[in-house]
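Form 7-S
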Amino acid sequence: MRIFDTLSAQIDSVGLPLFAVTLAAVPRADTPLLMFMHWHGFRREGPRRTADASREARPVASSALQINSRWQAIAHIESDVLDAAWQLGAWNLERDEKRACNTVGAPLSEALACRQAFGDYPAFDERETLLAEAPDRASLMQLAAEVGYVQWQFRPVAGGVWAASGGDDTLDASGHRAPPCPVSAESLAGGARRSRRTVYRLGAVHRLIV
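Output:
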């Protein structure tokens, strides 16, 4: 899937730092993967005038991409996600296995989490909150509600807003790490009837911080 290459190209194209990256997949072979990029930055909107200060600065909407690569097991996706998180300097990678929420007795919070995982964000002050190039997003969300889904999230240092936090001795000067990622994907234990969270630790501190 080469998620690292896709993310790097998006960072170069948009020209803004990333706050976080989330990905969502339905555990059905060869279904599309959705990747969401949450940008940190503002852009001025409204008619151009002599003074830019007269134009309102608004947060940049998140963006979504649909990745249509073929795959047979969630582990194949996760290995690529781990590689991207590793190379972009993330401290950790969180994986959430979510059960199906379109079942009797499922709380509304699970249905809301499913909608948000697939980019169904409410409008804010009549502003767009998501710019999507994901034609199958709605159908994937409906399928996820029936069979469950897997979501990953990481916060990149390279191309992100976390470089100033420091404290990670595995990063080079640019906030990257050299491949390959030494962390292996773990098997899933959730499924349609059970939810579970797994956190992969990627960063490390090899010195005493005082």
